[in-house]
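Forwarding the complex inputs:
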Amino acid sequence: MSSPAPATGQQRYFVPDPSAWPFLLTAGLVTVILGVWSALEDKQLGPLPFYLGGFFAAFIIFRWCRGVALESEGGKYSKQVDMTYRMGMAWFIFSEVMFFGAFFGALFYAREISLPWIGGEGAKGVANLLWNGFEASWPSNGPGNLGGYFQTMSAWGLPFVNTCLLLTSGVTITMAHHALKDNKRLACILWMWATVLLGVVFLWCQATEYIHAYHELNLTMHSGVYGSTFFMLTGFHGMHVTLGTLMLFIITCRLMAGHFKPDSHFGFEGVAWYWHFVDVVWIGLFVFVYVL
Amino acid sequence: MANAHAHDAHDHHDHHGPDKGIMRWIKTTNHKDLGTLYLCFAFTMFFIGGLMSLVIRAELFQPGLQFVDPEFFNSMTTMHALVMIFGGVMPAFTGLANWMVPMMIGAGDLALPRVNNWGFWILPFGFAMLLSTLFMPGGAPAGGWTMYPPLVLQTGNAFPMLIFAVHLLGISSITGAINVVVTILNMRAPGMTLLKMPLFVWTWLITAYLLIATMPVLAGAVTMLLTDKYFGTSFFTASGGGDPVLFQHIFWFFGHPEVYILILPAFGIVSTIIPTFARKPLFGYASMVYATASIGFLSFIVWAHHMFTVGMPLAAELFFMFSTMLIAVPTGVKVFNWVATMWRGSMSFETPMLFALGFVFLFTMGGFSGLMLAITPVDFQYHDTYFVVAHFHYVLVPGAVFSIIAAVYYWIPKWTGRMYNETLGKLHFWLSAIFINVTFFPQHFLGLAGMQRRVPDYNVMFTDFNQMSTIGAFGFFLAQFLFIGNMLACMFGKRDGKVPERVWEGAHGLEWTVASPAPYHTFEDPPLVGDNGEPVAAGKPAHGH
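Prediction (whole assembly, two chains):
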């Protein structure tokens, strides 16, 4: 390996050869979008574009990631390239934080501003004309009682279990990281499998919770602004956990294939960052969606 | 590793030179290729968006309905905005960043070249989707580019396409922005300290930060629109406890930083061009940097000035009024610095300088009308009138677009190795500057007199000013063909005479130390940058003063 060499260094910054992956990935994604658009609107195209485009995009993503992994294992990445990936991942996670920020903002606004106003608070007397007799409270499905009577999920049942699962997974992935740095590969792989397992169990609990909400509590996406924010926040979080679990799984497979070194394993660390990020989002969800 | 290096040390042009034909452009990971693609795409979109504006202006030439029905008119205003903002100005700035940022900081390429390719190629697909809505049952989106519910939820078949197109454009912007931030923070040549970076690099760094922070918020907002329409949620429905105003808050939390995304790189361009043709260093470099950062910060706490008439509490009206006015301070610092840079300079007035001066003058006028709009009680009168239209077109056309044109004139000799035709360039400037004022200045009066925006018909008393405006719009559009012709001649014309490395005698910076046209790969081995911001050769500045 060459030195970091930011100066007129020995190892040049790695600029990849021309690649068709990005173009093909876009083509795949647009095919998926056409399928979804058709399903939502004109119903002409059928499910084929969705699945075809989805498989194609997934295949390209796999090829792309595989290419990056091979480049990394092939020693093409200098310290400077490593720093690029670190910064890129950090900024990407920041953008994800802002994405969730939009939904948390919607939750706070609905609870603290729009519902009290509909209930006539402040100088909004007109609300009393429109929604006579409505008293703001939380949870609420609004003056229209949209979706009908519903109950909320108790925070201290499955959601609390889920909190424990994710917090534990944060510990196990850290153990795996330490094991990797100490070059104890078997321990690392076992801790990683434990992390993957915790992620899968979390998702299973989340699915159980949704079924419970829909069948027994009548808590659905149609349940006014409570149901909207509940399912939007937990749903997007669940999608991120799914993605994170998949990435953990791939990293574990790479570990088993002998990838990563004690002093050079950003692929591992990037996924660990991502996993901690979904962890932190969950803490926010647990506090603001379930407990408060 | 040693072998690989020895191999790289050979002539690498045949090693990783471009592919041939169309595949070169589809597969390229080269920042110059991608910069060219971005710019060509942006000017195509400027052309399409310009045609849409001509439909609007033709319809408004006379009161009553002439050419198009009101629904299509509203589609035109909506699509014109989306195409110009997301397809024109933003990709043009990204293209300039692609070309110039690596060359300005002494990097071999952008940090993530494949991601860079992805960011570009999303755009043609995204806009194919967006423009396809013009041919769908129910027509293209017509609820305004701000996509306010509940109106936008009445869009026909096009609605999901609008949402997904916005998602795609957001992904493109975020990937491009992450690339720029990482390149600037990680790839600077040794000696290129942060406070030695050219202003264009600084303004793009802040712009990229704004993009990464706000595009995901827009994605969240339009996702809520999608679920409200198709999946039964009620974020923006009062009967379910939501609020349409919530959308406006989230949208403008994105939307206000977005307007600085559209103007900060322009500040950087003008701060580059004026010192060159005034032959003086930029006055107050550090204060320019801090002013840019201040504008970036303030842009996050002013959003609700777009919503003064929506029924916010008095405290919110006051807060957003005063925070908005604060922005005049750092912006004033900038304008003052540009003027002070020219003070007692050896000025010359080549085309890029003319456009930069046009920018300073006309952008400042747009800034002043912005100050008027910031005053809440006054805005109650101006809201949604042509005064607002005049305001933001003054900051966007003679603002952002003039800066893009200036940048292209300024750097195209470096890109193509051919000098543009100065006479045509000057003619282009004067026609543009005159017609743009003919177009938009009367709109101030129309707005003050109460003419509403986004309506295809108007009171007869507004006819004269509208006719002026329409004449100006057609004139401005036609004048741009001078520009296109001039640039095509630079790209494909005969090469007569050699363009020197330092195209402009007063220009400084790393990009002027490489050949014109710039070779396919520049600074693969980073130069050592001296105190004057240019390479140090054998211990002393290569181009000492």
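The helical segments of chain A are 21-40, 48-73, 79-118, 125-130, 158-181, 185-217, 224-256, 266-291.
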